[in-house]
Amino acid sequence: MTITIRAAAIEDAAAIAGIRVRSWQAAYRGMVPDSLLDGLSTEVDTPRFRGVLERLTETNQRAWIAEDDGMATGFAISGPPQEDDLAAGAGEVHLLYLEPDRRRGGIGGILLDHAVADLRADGFAPIVLWTLQANTPARAFYEAGGWRHDGTVKAFVVEGIEVPEVRYVLGDS
User: If one looks up domain 3-170 in CATH, what number appears?
Assistant: First the structure.
């Protein structure tokens, strides 16, 4: 296993979309409506992620691809936070997804550490991320890495259903 992290390019949109679709379908079953998960498709998500990648500079965000021996196995997107209740200068890891069969192999930690290091190098602090409240495996992963739930909860609305998300702050930000 040779893990490398590189900046994502527009040509990575389909790989990113596929990772996101498979990750949602594996991780969020029972947390969001099955109809949503069953309706996800790489073909639909690819143009959306192409647009995200095209707008990275104007949104001051960065996208990263984790590769194992040249194959995309995960991605992260980071930059300024989406919420305005944080201190000036805060940063956020907006998305972090892995191929479902690559979880618990160290790739997620390497990818997350890279996104955090990049945010810190740009002077962002504190650093936050959001995860579904019911996603106990993800929460355990973040907590093991020094992240802590700061008590903030918000509703993520999907297909008209509110799904609670919790905010995590990196303990040493």
Answer: 3.40.630.30
